[in-house]
Amino acid sequence: MGIECRLLTVFCSALAIVNCSSTLETVVEPSLYLERESLDAALLGKWTRSCALCHVNGEAGAPIVGDTESWAERLTKGEEALIESVIQGINSMPPLGYCMGCETDDFRSMIRFMSNTST
Ligand code: HEC
C-alpha cells in the first residue's frame, strides 16, 4: 500500500512534468490543496477510499471534513469516544468506517484531519 502510493506519486509527478503543468502541488499533495491538518500519503489514501465516501458530502448526516463547528460538537464527547464510535460503528456509519486496514492511531489522525484540530 505504501509502495503503491509512492509509485502513484512518482507517476503523477512524471505526468505533470511531461504536461509542463503548473499544478504539480495539487497533483502530488492533495493535503496541501485541502489546506488542512495533513495526513501522510498512505493515510490519505486510506481516508480517500473509506471515510471520504461519506464525510466529504455529509452522506446520511456525517459531519463534513473541515466543518469545525459540527466536529467541535462531536469532540465534546472526547477523542477516545469518537475513535470508539468509528471502531464500533454508529447509526449510519459502518464499523471501522469501511477502512478494514486502519489502526486506532489512523482513526485518531483522520479525526484530527477532518476536524481540523492538531492536538
Ligand atoms: C458509509 C458512510 C460513512 C463512512 C464510510 C464513514 N463514516 Fe464516519 N460517520 C458517518 C455518519 C452518517 C456519521 C454520523 C453518525 C451519527 O451520529 O448519526 C459519522 C460520524 C463519524 C464520527 C463521529 C462519531 C460520534 O461519536 O459522534 C467520526 C469520528 C467518524 N464518523 C469518523 C470516520 C472515519 C475516521 C471514517 C473512515 C475510517 C469514517 N467515519 C467513515 C458515515 C460514514
Describe the protein's architecture and organization.
The chain is mainly α and 119 residues long. It is globular. The chain has 8 helices and no strands. The longest helix is centred in the N-terminal third of the chain and has 17 residues, at 2-18. The chain has a single domain (30-115), classed as Cytochrome Bc1 Complex, Chain D, domain 2 (Orthogonal Bundle), CATH 1.10.760. Helix 7 (79-88) crosses helix 8 (104-115). It starts with a helix and ends with a helix. It binds heme C. Residues 50-51, 53-55, 59-63, 74, 77, 82, 85-86, 90-94, 97-99, 102, 107, 110-111 line the site of heme C (HEC).
CATH class: Mainly Alpha
Looking at CATH, which topology would you report?
Answer: Cytochrome Bc1 Complex, Chain D, domain 2
Q: How many distinct domains?
A: 1
Percentage of β-strand residues: under 5%
Helix content: 55-70%
Low-confidence stretches: 11-29
Number of helices: 8
Number of strands: 0
Shape: globular
Q: Taking all residues together, what is the mean pLDDT?
A: 80
Q: In the CATH hierarchy, what is the architecture at level 2? A: Orthogonal Bundle
Distance between the termini: 27 Å
Attached small molecules: heme C
Main pleated-sheet profile: none
Helix- and strand-based class? mainly alpha
Radius of gyration over C-alpha positions, nearest whole angstrom: 15 Å
The CATH homologous superfamily is termed Cytochrome c-like domain
Reading the helices and strands in chain order gives HHHHHHHH
